[in-house]
Write a structure and sequence with these properties.
There is one protein chain. The protein is mainly alpha-helical. The chain has one domain. The N terminus is likely disordered. Helix 5 packs antiparallel against helix 6 and helix 11 packs across helix 12. A hairpin with a 3-residue loop joins strand 3 and strand 4. The protein is globular, with a radius of gyration of 23 Å.
């Protein structure tokens, strides 16, 4: 029987100084920002519902009936009914475990794919309730470990449930909510000294959405290779085993799955108008100015925002930077979690609002570990409440570029830069020592013969 190894002090919240109740002032600033954001959003929804137009302001589509309401959930239920998973490129990119589960649910409940039916509503509510319950469990567990006051804990939970990214994800029924919730529990378990439990949870999160795979780096950094192997095994089983149940077997469906992923990663230019308004990736910082200039010089052409594959090197560079900083021995766990999360949110081509929920746990954990910091509450708070309210560019009604489209990726870059600035002496010392060690070991590489 294997006993979990104690995590070194830089990774374990138990061995770091606890957060006392009189050191939560700046965390309350973060809570206040979330509250103001929620109040403003609900006030805006009220005005919108009563047809009070606000010049220059966009729309909030949550809570209103429309064609794509709950779409991310019920579309998958509908297509899972016909066992036609791997024949559709979009759904080949989805989690095989998720699709298979929905297939059996739809077999038991024939009306499950109908969002207007009683069966469909019950299943949807159950999915959302479980996801939010897992999220709240993670936060309550963290608050107990770090001795957060009951008042602040309750305030956060209420503000979190009323935050736009959470409500938007619920409104779409996107399974990113469950993935982010599982990741939140993973972070709490790992920092609480239970790496093996954390490995199982991370494996499950990877099986639902592939992007959490970057967090395996945490096990590798800490030389917890057994836990890394367990995580990989859990993810592999939960991804590969369901493929065996679809027509074509494991081999054929695995090839279709890989092809589906490749299609989304290698598409050179894709015109997606909908995702522009709620995209948090680094692509927006490049593709928005490019499209505005293109439309300005080509008045007869109505071009939507085009996602350019040429931006991929910038996305890879940011993710590599976050990884490189995380590898440094003296960088704390709360820095690593937040850095890797920011790297993930900036990286994907389609990083919609529903992915923002993923930053909640690492941001809260960072602020509670740095209770006297006065900058991060503002950065994390503004990022979490940032919504597409103000449109500053609209080309013939086809392109609506909002403040959020630019602010969200900028705030993520500011968070990364701020952490690097705080730890600059550690980073500089590490790489100077690394360079010095390489110079001593391989002097010929650094010397030039004239």
């Amino acid at each position: 029987m294997r006993i979990n190894k104690a995590i070194p002090s830089r990774f374990s919240s138990k061995e770091e100084p606890g957060l006392y109740r009189d050191k939560q002032g700046m965390f309350r600033i973060f809570l206040l920002i979330l509250t103001i954001g929620a109040v403003f959003m609900f006030a805006f929804l009220f005005l919108q519902a009563n047809n009070f137009g606000i010049p220059g302001m966009g729309k909030i589509n949550i809570f209103f009936d429309r064609a794509d309401k709950y779409m991310d959930f019920f579309d998958l239920v509908y297509y899972s009914k016909g066992y036609d998973f791997c024949g559709r490129p979009y759904f080949a990119y989805a989690s095989p475990l998720y699709i298979l589960t929905l297939h059996y649910i739809s077999a038991l409940f024939p009306e499950a794919n109908n969002k207007f039916s009683a069966e469909g509503r019950v299943i949807f509510v159950f999915f959302i309730t479980v996801s939010l319950a897992v999220f709240l469990y993670a936060f309550v567990k963290l608050f107990r470990i770090l001795k957060v006051s009951t008042f602040n804990a309750a305030w956060f939970c209420l503000a979190f449930l009323c935050a736009y990214p959470v409500l938007f994800t619920v409104d779409r029924g996107n399974w990113s909510l469950l993935t982010s919730a599982i990741l939140a529990v993973f972070m709490v378990k790992y920092t609480g000294g239970k790496p093996l439990s954390a490995a199982f949870l991370l494996g499950a999160a990877i099986a639902l959405k592939y992007y959490p795979v970057i967090f395996v780096l945490i096990f590798i950094i800490n030389k917890q290779f057994f836990e890394a192997a367990v995580c990989a095994a859990v993810a592999a089983v939960l991804i590969l085993a369901p493929l065996s149940f679809f027509p074509g077997g494991l081999g054929g469906n695995l090839q279709l799955l890989m092809n589906g992923i490749a299609v989304y990663q290698k598409m050179p230019v894709t015109i997606i108008a909908e995702l522009l308004g709620h995209n948090t990736s680094i692509y927006m910082l490049f593709d928005i100015p490019r499209t505005i200039l293109n439309n300005s010089f080509n008045q007869n052409v109505s071009s939507l925002i085009q996602f350019n594959s040429g931006v991929q090197p910038a996305a890879y560079a940011v993710l590599l930077l976050c990884t490189a900083v995380s590898l440094i021995r003296k960088i704390k766990m709360h820095d690593i979690l937040l850095l890797l999360t920011c790297g993930i949110l900036l990286f994907p081509l389609f990083a919609g609002d529903y992915m923002i929920t993923m930053i909640a746990m690492p941001a809260v954990y960072w602020m509670l570990k740095e209770p006297e910091d006065k900058i991060m509450p503002w950065l994390a708070g503004l990022y979490f409440i940032c919504k597409r309210y103000i449109s500053f560019y609209n080309h013939f009604g086809n392109v609506s570029v909002t403040v959020q489209s630019v602010l969200n990726p900028l705030i993520l870059l500011l968070i990364i830069g701020y952490i690097i600035l705080l730890r600059w002496e550690i980073i500089k010392s590490f790489y100077l020592n690394l360079t010095h060690g390489l110079f001593k070991k391989f002097p010929g590489i650094f010397l030039t013969n004239f």
